[in-house]
Design a protein that fits this description.
By secondary structure, the chain is α+β, with helices and mostly antiparallel strands. The chain has four helices and twelve strands; from the N terminus they run E-H-E-E-E-H-E-H-E-E-E-E-H-E-E-E.
Length: about 230
């Protein structure tokens, strides 16, 4: 499998306004422009995290867009578990937090097929086409999304994405943030490591223990860690 890279970290909130407030308080910077995802009924704001170690990497702040129904077929759920009532309740009470990450691959369908042939097999979902408009033009990508919207392994098994001609970081201004390290801790650390290797992703450290995704960022305020348990 061709080498994959960490494409972006996903921070979700009960609202996009909550995400912006969290970002400014936690990271010391205001997020840049994002856009709308009519297919999923979500919207986002973005920040560049690129570095030599993690090129073309960014932070996505995402929330369900109020009053907007997804154009996805009825019965199919939004990506990243954003239709999960338990997740939404915790975001309302505890505030935005890191919930997931996305891996950039050369061929999303081939990657999903490879995971389906793992032992045990992994259903990473169908590869769907998605778009959104940006100042630089229309962004187009292919992304794995399960019909039930689940992230899998408490968010530690990445969604996979294959970009078209444009990548969001191409027009992002410098943010003063960089991703330094990403660690995935899980009771099934060995199967998780095997699945990451199947994807071709070697930039994520795996450790045994209770489920936890932790990202270490360098920020204008110094080092900051983001954890999927909200701490």
């Amino acid at each position: 499998m061709t080498r994959a890279r960490i494409d972006h970290l996903v921070v979700a909130g009960a609202s996009l306004a909550d995400c912006v407030q969290w970002c400014e308080a936690t990271l010391g910077v205001s997020p840049g422009a994002g856009g709308r995802h009519p297919l999923m009924g979500t919207h986002n704001r973005l920040l560049d995290l690129s570095s030599t170690a993690h090129p073309r990497c960014y932070l996505e702040l995402i929330a369900v867009e109020p009053g907007v129904a997804p154009t996805r077929a009825p019965g199919l759920r939004r990506w990243f578990d954003l239709d999960d009532e338990g997740l939404q309740a915790s975001l309302r009470v505890e505030g935005p937090r890191l919930i997931h990450f996305v891996a950039r691959v050369a061929d999303a369908q081939a990657t999903v097929d490879s995971l389906a042939h793992e032992t045990p097999p992994v259903n990473r979902g169908a590869v769907i086409q998605a778009t959104r408009d940006s100042p630089a033009g229309r962004l187009e990508w292919r992304i794995s999304v399960r019909d039930d919207g689940q992230r899998l392994m408490q968010g530690l098994l990445p969604t996979v994405i294959q970009w078209g001609n444009l990548h969001p970081t191409g027009t992002m201004p410098p943010s003063g943030l960089t991703l330094e390290r990403l660690v995935a801790r899980h009771p099934q650390a060995m199967p998780l490591a095997a699945n990451l290797a199947c994807i071709g992703l070697h930039d994520v450290e795996t450790q045994p223990g209770p489920p936890l995704l932790t990202a270490w960022l360098q920020t204008p305020r110094g080092p900051v860690s983001l954890c999927s348990d909200g701490i």
